[in-house]
Amino acid sequence: MRTSGRSRHGHAIDHELLRTRKLLLHKSEVRKLEGRTKQKGYTLIPTRLYFRNGPVKCELALARGKQEWDKRATERKREADNEAKAAVARSQRQ
User: Chain-wide mean pLDDT for the chain?
Assistant: First the structure.
């Protein structure tokens, strides 16, 4: 999508938003992250994107998924909080 009079370089209007980009890391860093993400339960998550004068910098985090018992504990806590809020709301209505 090139308009007349503009160069072939990207412009705010005519560039690909979802194109693939290189991840600028050393090979050892890539191998280490790749090895960790292949372990069960680990995921690589982009936490921040920095747009600075053209290049995009990405801050990555290695996260571990919740265990089944941890999910149940979170659900119990959420239900207890909801019951407490409902009790407070009932007492304020009366």
Answer: 79
CA dist., res. 38 & res. 25, Å (int)? 18
Alpha helices in the chain (DSSP H): 27-38, 68-93
| pTM of the entire predicted model | 0.43
Give the Cα separation of 53 and 55 in Å (integer): 6
Are 42 and 63 a contacting pair, CB within 8 Å?
yes
Please state, in angstroms and rounded to a whole number, the distance separating the CA atoms of residues 30 and 24.
Answer: 9
Distance, CA of 40 to CA of 71 (rounded, Å):
17
- pLDDT at 67 exceeding the cut of 80: no
